[in-house]
Amino acid sequence: MRITGLGHAGMFIETAGGSILCDPVIGPTFFGSWFPFPDNRALEWERFGKADFLYVSHRHRDHFDPALMQKYVPKDIRVLLPDYPTDDLERDLRALGYENIIYTQAGVPLEFGDLKLMVTPLRAPSDGPIGDSSLSVDDGTASILNQNDSHPLDLDKLLNFSKPEAYFTQVSGAIWWPMVYDLPSEAKQNFAKLKRDAQNKRAMYYIEKVDAEHVFPMAGPPMFLRQELFRYNGWGEHDDAIFTDQRQFLDHMAEIRPQQKGHLFLPGTQVDVNDGELTVTQTLFTDAEIERIFGDKWNYLAEQRDSRQDEIRAEEASRAAVLPPAEMLAAIKEWWEPLLRRARTIRNGVGGNVRFRIGHLDMVVDFPKAKVREYAGEDCIYWYTIPADLVSTNIRDGEVDWSNSIFLSMQFEVGRSGKFNEFLTTFLKCLSRDRIEYVENWYAEQSDVSEDVQLDAWIVQRRCPHLRADLSKTGKIEDGVLTCSLHDWKWDLTSGKCLTTQGHPIRSSQAPAPAAASPAA
């Protein structure tokens, strides 16, 4: 088996039973904000596009690049479609002309001659764009797990497919927190470090559980080449960003797990695996070029920025004309109010007003009353400032997921009066009837009926209130605070209150003290 890195989360897998093109992206994506790091344009895209199968793990535009697919990937390619609760990804693929779709089943292996594969989807509201997935591949000569951005809960079931010799997983940030938030510089630096530490902890959790001999960090970081975002590359010019690069993570892993074999996985990295023997060859960059990319990163990034502004200008020219404020308000009102009326759990979870300043439009979304109207000085729990051309483009395109467009672009600002509100973020990426109904039903099914487990001196419900992880495996308690290591969510066990966001209480109580030993007869 041969795996070639294509940049970001992209890879080309050649097996004894056929080849798979996974998540190919050149970009720029998210309104011209994200570019793969390092530059992957010089790869043999014509050759990779002639794969036997195409696998797009999810809809996020750093994994799904329609322009690249239209240019390089034939329309008759067999497409491995993850089993997601809504058909947004399928409709996106069919709109591009890809009709030869293989409907995979969640966690069910498929065989194509010598090639055995399995797509394992995640379906919770916070899993990417309501859906993330991993790809397991085995051809009799080797077995690999391409986990990319997904955070699977049932690792035992996933690893029953086969024991991977090579493991490919996300280690960098893919979120806008805390960079776009209205925070003092020192607070932003502190939150960025906490976020980087949490990302490292989660990645190491999976690395230890999967226990593959060889690990390849991938799926990031992006390059930010827009002038106003350039400072947020890597850990940031002021140590206030979250985008750990491949070499930084490998250094961290070597400290925590020195016995682990880790490898740089870059555009052009060629990994050959055969009956337990693995070799890694860099085919696109020389050793000296790799050293400069990481050792002189800011100068490398500056050269990329200065040479690629034409791509940014082309993206900006593709945006919609800005709608007049009254027309924009009417369009959002017509679009969102019917969804708000259907979203009782989300409305209650947000529980207040959210202000949006969009160009010359100043509007408020009143979640308790399911209304969209002009802002009139109401108290608000969140407030966004978003360029009007981004919102006008999303209205034109009917974009149902604003995290997959505006928020990951980081071309906006936001503030809040309290803790992170998951329900608000969920609403803003569920702007269709199908998505709202799925999410409302998902929340309704989350009432906990699972068994309890004892962790240290506490009895807690076995399943995490966030995404149902098994807390007997992912939970750790310190000073009466439970942390689920999967996403670093925290609960005060005395009250059961979630310390990370609104809602999501946990069932907990102190364990009975051990019975005193009977005196000797």
SSE map:
Layout: E1 2-7, E2 10-15, E3 18-22, E4 34-36, H1 45-48, E5 53-55, H2 66-72, E6 78-81, H3 88-95, E7 101-103, E8 110-112, E9 115-122, E10 132-138, E11 143-148, H4 155-159, E12 166-170, H5 185-210, E13 214-218, E14 222-224, H6 246-256, E15 261-262, E16 269-274, E17 277-282, H7 287-295, H8 297-307, H9 309-317, H10 325-342, H11 344-350, E18 353-358, E19 361-366, E20 371-374, E21 382-386, H12 388-397, H13 403-409, E22 413-416, H14 422-428, H15 433-444, E23 452-455, E24 458-461, H16 471-474, E25 475-478, E26 481-484, E27 489-492, E28 497-498, E29 508-510
Parallel strand pairs: 3-5, 5-6, 6-7, 11-12, 12-13, 13-15, 18-21
Antiparallel strand pairs: 1-2, 1-16, 2-3, 4-14, 8-9, 9-10, 10-11, 16-17, 18-19, 19-20, 21-22, 23-24, 24-29, 25-26, 26-27, 27-28
Helix pairs in contact: 7-8, 11-14
Question: What does the model show?
Answer:
- This protein has 521 residues and is an alpha+beta fold.
- Helix content is 30%, strand content 25%.
- The protein has 16 helices and 29 strands.
- The strands form 6 sheets. It has an 8-stranded mixed beta sheet with strand order 7-6-5-3-2-1-16-17, with no helix packed on it.
- A hairpin with a 2-residue loop joins strand 25 and strand 26.
- The longest helix is centred in the middle third of the chain and has 26 residues, at 185-210.
- The protein starts with a strand and ends in an 11-residue tail after the last strand.
